[in-house]
């Protein structure tokens, strides 16, 4: 079964409609254009290193940054300090960490946590503080996903 990929504008990006090579070249061209445009904008100063803007109930700062997918989509890699260093060096002040709970549970039992993995997430938050980067923890695939009640004790991986 082939999945359709349709943009909000209705453009069909299904694999049969656009080649991987064409998609990558278009994406690279858009990225290059955005990069050049950002060089021409002198009114968007980057936050100073180790300086996070103060959020308030009335106004959130303008954060800009990246997703770090180290604990998502089956990956369970440590977060790399060099990523945080480069993100800050390039003038960005935000990382989003999409987190899949299956990365920090033991033996598919959603009631038992693997503490070393949780420590890696804590370390990523600390790296954000060290480099002046706001860290957003984004919890995905919680037990009971798609209306399925979690069973007591062990569960299998959803969708596998």
Structure, explained:
The protein folds into 2 domains: 1-44; 48-147, no CATH class. Helices cover 29% and strands 15% of the residues. It contains 3 helices and 5 strands; from the N terminus they run αβαβββαβ. It is globular, with a radius of gyration of 20 Å.
Secondary-structure map with pairings?
Elements (H helix, E strand, L loop, with lengths): L19 H21 L24 E3 L13 H9 L4 E7 L4 E2 L2 E5 L1 H17 L2 E7 L20
Parallel strand pairs: 1-2, 2-5
Antiparallel strand pairs: 3-4
Total count of strands = 5
Largest sheet descriptor: 3 strands, parallel
Oligomer: single chain
Strand content is 15-25%
Q: Mean pLDDT, as a whole number?
A: 73
What's the number of helices? 3
What Rg, in angstroms, do the CA atoms define?
20 Å
- Distance between the first and last residues' Cα: 16 Å
Give the topology string: H per helix, E per strand: HEHEEEHE
Overall domain count: 2
SS content category: alpha/beta
Helical content class: 25-40%
Characterize the overall form.
Answer: globular
Largest sheet: spatial strand order: 1-2-5
Low-confidence stretches: 41-47, 152-160
Give a brief rundown of this model.
The chain is 29% helix and 15% strand. With 160 residues, it is α/β, with parallel strands linked by helices. The strands form two sheets. It has a three-stranded parallel beta sheet, covered by helices on one side. It has a two-stranded antiparallel ribbon with strand order 3-4.
């Amino acid at each position: 079964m082939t999945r359709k990929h349709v943009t909000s504008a209705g453009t069909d990006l299904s694999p049969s409609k656009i080649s991987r090579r064409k998609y990558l070249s278009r994406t690279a061209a858009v990225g290059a254009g955005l990069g050049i445009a950002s060089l021409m904008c002198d009114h968007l100063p980057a936050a100073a290193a180790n300086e996070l803007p103060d959020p308030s109930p009335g106004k959130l700062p303008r954060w800009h940054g990246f997703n770090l997918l180290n604990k998502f989509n089956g990956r369970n890699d440590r977060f790399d300090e060099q990523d945080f260093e480069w993100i800050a060096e390039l003038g960005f002040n935000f990382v989003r960490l999409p987190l899949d709970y299956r990365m920090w549970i033991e033996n598919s039992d959603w009631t038992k946590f693997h503490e070393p993995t949780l420590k890696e997430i804590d370390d990523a938050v600390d790296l954000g503080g060290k480099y002046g980067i706001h860290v957003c923890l984004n919890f995905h695939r919680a037990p009971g996903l798609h209306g399925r009640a979690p069973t007591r004790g062990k569960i299998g991986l959803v969708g596998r």
